[in-house]
Amino acid sequence: MKQFFSRKRVLVTGASGFIGSKLCESLCAYGAEVHGIHIHELKPYHNKQIKWWQCDLKDPDSIHKIMENIKPDLIFHLASHVEGSRSIELILPTLHNNLMSTVNILTAATKIGCQRVIISGSMEESTSINTNNIPSSPYAAAKYSSSIYAKMFHELYKTPVAVARLFMVYGPGQRDLKKLIPYTIVSHLKNQNPNYTSGARLVDWIFIDDVINGLLSMAYHPQIEGQTIDIGSGMTLSVKNIVLLLLKTLNSKLSPNFGNLADRACEYTQIANTEETFNKLNWEPTTDLKQGLTATADWYKQEYSSLK
């Protein structure tokens, strides 16, 4: 793997985010020339080995100029407006930041040329156009539409694109404290009883290091263009049970308040097809849930003061 990435020019959108920053670390370690796109001001903890470009991905001319300048061999498009709320106020933000940005990336990559484009999908999107499952949120609809566009670009223009359908990613470095696992750990550190929905939803949880290895595998394995590849654990655990397992890992005395928040509408259970992914990538997750939660809890305990 190291030989493949060495001296490759790699463009990562969302490079300052949770998954993007971890991916960039691995790419730098493998000797790649990493270019990261960000829209907001960079923080002191962001990677100094990366060549940073500030750009609004909704602007097709800006992204085209940057890609023309870099001429990347590989593109990982991870930038996204991640918000699972069903609010109508999210229709336009997710349309612009998720779908339009993806179309702009695909258009520029097709015109300029590259070896492969990896688009981040979501477990919230359906895997079939014939499914009866309606997208469960504006975010899910935008992600699903992005995947359809990726397949169209490959079919019509031979764009070498594949979609990584990411399941519920967790682990050290996730700075969005509204997410379930960070929220639970921070509640423990604050000694405040956390509030949840019923916790009945079944979720496929996948550790960040496994996700990064999956994304890297998608960059160099042949004959996956035009396809959606599941990056998940292939197992589910309910929100309630993962909270209880996490609190046990923390030796916490908190009493979680399940049912204090309303369940979201149209939540479907999605499980990664890990057998199919293994056949295509020779990749499978190696971090079990207990190991992943312990590593995550340890990171938040160490970094908590800087997250306030």
From TrEMBL:
UniProt-listed PANTHER family: DTDP-D-GLUCOSE 4,6-DEHYDRATASE-RELATED
Pfam families recorded: Epimerase
UniProt-recorded name of the protein: Nucleoside-diphosphate-sugar epimerase
Boundaries of every NAD-dependent epimerase/dehydratase domain copy: 10-232
Superkingdom assignment: Bacteria
Gene3D superfamilies: NAD(P)-binding Rossmann-like Domain
Family the UniProt entry places it in: Belongs to the NAD(P)-dependent epimerase/dehydratase family.
